[in-house]
Write a structure and sequence with these properties.
30% helix; 7 helices; 5-stranded parallel sheet; alpha/beta; 5-stranded antiparallel sheet; 15 strands
Length: 232
């Protein structure tokens, strides 16, 4: 994995370099004090991961991540910052992780190693067998965007269209044990790989929008916090 580092404080950049250099299977492509320099490097060099501070002079780490996201560059981002105020916005940019300073070596190593494991097996394996009256419908798990329970019926939204069943979310959740799926709300199960955006809906809930479909789901604030801690 090829990694770029940017932090405007020399002592923090040195800490990043020291930790990343000790991880097997990674290569530091650049380490810079300037987000502008990091941007120029990204245009010239291929990297898989950018680890960046957020608040920096001129171009911020958040703006740099926004450029990566808006240009659909295949670069994961880890924010390492002293400011917690960007956490929800970081989800909008689909960042891999949001680490608060001061942080331990183990916290950063664990985050990078999770990304390494994820890159080794990006596809969700297996199939889901859906009971529909007198027949059984077979769905590739990787094609499931989210699942919604409404009344006595359940709708499975896939990237090729919706499928209805009378199976409960509890029954389906038992079949979706992969960490890619979470019970985001009492009425929803979502596939985190399709999530595009979280928009505040009420004090303790967000609306979830997805890549490729117009339908939306719900997620509780508790689950957003859980995602931030364990997935991104």
């Amino acid at each position: 994995m090829r990694i770029g580092l940017v932090d405007d404080r020399p002592i923090d950049l040195d800490k990043l370099k020291g930790i990343i250099e000790g991880i097997a299977g990674v290569e530091i492509v650049f380490a810079t004090l300037s987000a502008e320099e990091a941007y120029e490097q990204i245009k010239k060099e291929t990297i898989d991961l950018l680890i960046a501070d957020i608040e920096m002079p001129s171009l911020s780490g958040y703006e740099l991540a926004d450029i990566i996201h808006s240009h659909a560059l295949n670069i994961a981002v880890i924010f390492v910052t002293g400011n917690s105020g960007y956490a929800v916005h970081a989800f909008e940019l689909n960042v891999h992780d949001y680490i608060m300073k001061p942080y331990s070596k183990e916290r950063l190593v664990h985050s990078v190693e999770r990304l390494l494991e994820k890159s080794k097996s990006t596809d969700i394996a297996g199939r889901l067998y859906i009971k529909r009256k007198n027949d059984i419908h077979i769905i590739q798990k990787k094609d499931i965007v989210f699942i919604e329970r409404s009344g006595r019926a359940t709708t499975i939204f896939t990237n090729s269209g919706p499928i209805k069943t009378y199976q409960t979310l509890n029954e389906l959740e038992g079949e979706l044990r992969e960490r890619d799926f979470i019970r985001s709300h009492r009425s929803f199960i979502i596939n985190i790989h399709y999530v595009k955006n979280f928009s505040l809906y009420a004090k303790n809930s967000y609306i979830v929008t997805f890549e490729g479909i117009e339908e939306q789901a719900m997620i509780t604030k508790e689950k957003v916090d859980f995602l931030q801690e364990n997935y991104f």
